[in-house]
Design brief:
Length: 378
């Protein structure tokens, strides 16, 4: 038995919808399936203004343009994240100020943010790690006190909530990912959600290469032209067709992923007492969306030995982000502050196989193997 870390889920309707899009003869962006996806996101999650993009990275690049980020601006970003949380702001010339994780959770710590804010701070980017919400009320309060924009990198957070509201509805703008490693996929794809009305009109223009073509398609103007900067951020209707087949099955996907997550949680809980291993924390204000199940080992050495042990049994468990503040690209630009919690998650966290088709037998093997490891390697 070879147990992969991830296996993309297919609903079975993807090819059918792609052929429908192909036969319709409209393969560019903002066509039939794109509109179906937009309507789905608005109806299900309350994303009243959303635009399908080629990736989450591109949605974040749109956000950086829309916030008018420029040289001299500072943007606060967690260090324990993917490069795409920071790169879009660097591309606009901003300085990145990296923030630490919470002591008990990989998410950015709101209690250590205030000291990082200066008159030049334009935005704070939040990452809801493993689909578990950041402490939104604290961040929204900081943002309004200092007049700073909140951006949600909600790449992993589809279908997750903070209290009663879906993640993605809090920030001035938010970005989701449909990369093949996420819960809902289309190969490469993303979504921009605009919550602050001030950015709605311009978001459509930047999406359509700096033209007002979207308004033209709606019949609001009789010719379209170049009205602003922009790029080609919209994705082909072929990918939207794939994505729509996934969205129609979101309840099945989410139920299965959450059930697998819960089974890991229930079965592995004794590790906390027998080996001092930490399980994921889901605070009472947050939900889980079954995106990632992880353990936090006691040391980097122990974590790496566990990964090797599982690999020998053909089970692929993987570590996650290498902190960005001390990365080869950034270390000379960092102000030298240690970020101990982010570093600990980088060194000690391991993610377990989690995908819709993971069978109960396969999952049991993963669980048994983890216990075997800790019973013989305390
Ligand atoms: C996956 C991911 C991204 C990048 O998404 P793409 O769609 O591949 O651009 C960005 N941020 C986080 C936190 C992610 O997990």
């Amino acid at each position: 038995m070879n147990i992969r870390y991830n296996k993309p889920y297919l609903s079975g309707q993807e090819i059918k919808y792609i052929s429908e899009a192909v036969l319709e003869g409209r393969l560019s962006g903002n066509q039939t399936f794109t509109k179906k996806c937009h309507a789905f996101f608005a109806q299900r999650f309350g994303f009243s203004h959303n635009l399908l993009t080629t990736s989450c990275t591109d949605a974040l690049e749109m956000i950086a343009i829309l916030l008018d980020i420029k040289e001299g601006d500072e943007v606060i970003v967690p260090s324990f994240t993917f490069v795409s949380t920071a790169n879009p702001f660097i591309l606009r010339g901003a300085s990145i100020v990296f923030a630490d994780s919470c002591p008990n959770h990989p998410n950015i710590d709101p209690d250590n943010i205030e000291s990082l804010i200066t008159p030049r701070t334009k935005a704070i980017v939040l990452v809801h790690y493993a689909g578990v919400a950041c402490q939104m009320e604290k961040f929204m309060k900081i943002a309004s006190t200092h007049n700073i924009a909140i951006v949600e990198d909600a790449a992993q957070a589809i279908d997750s909530k903070y209290k009663d509201s879906y993640l993605g509805t809090f920030g001035a703008m938010s970005a989701f990912s449909f990369h093949e490693t996420k819960n809902i996929i289309c190969g490469e794809g993303g979504l921009l959600v605009v919550n602050d009305e001030n950015y709605i009109r311009r978001s459509e223009i930047i999406w359509e290469k700096g033209t007002n073509r979207a308004a033209f398609y709606r019949g609001e103007i009789n010719k379209y032209g170049w009205v602003d900067v922009g790029s080609s951020f919209l994705s082909s209707d072929i990918l939207a067709a794939f994505l729509f087949a996934q969205l129609e099955n979101i309840d099945v996907i989410q139920q299965k992923r959450i059930a697998i997550w819960q089974r890991y949680y229930d079965a592995l809980q004794p590790l906390e007492t027998i080996a001092g291993i930490e399980l994921p924390v889901v605070p009472s204000y947050a939900t889980k969306n079954g995106h990632i199940f992880y353990l936090v080992c006691k040391s980097e050495k122990q974590r790496n030995r566990l990964i090797t042990y599982l690999k020998e049994k053909s089970i692929h468990a993987v570590f996650h982000y290498l902190t960005l503040h001390d990365s080869p690209y950034f270390k000379d630009k960092h102000d030298g502050r240690p970020l101990p919690h982010a570093e600990r998650f980088s060194q000690c966290l391991v993610r377990l196989p989690l995908y819709v088709e993971l069978t109960p037998q396969e999952q049991q093997l993963v669980i048994d193997s983890i216990f075997d490891f800790f019973n013989s390697n305390k």
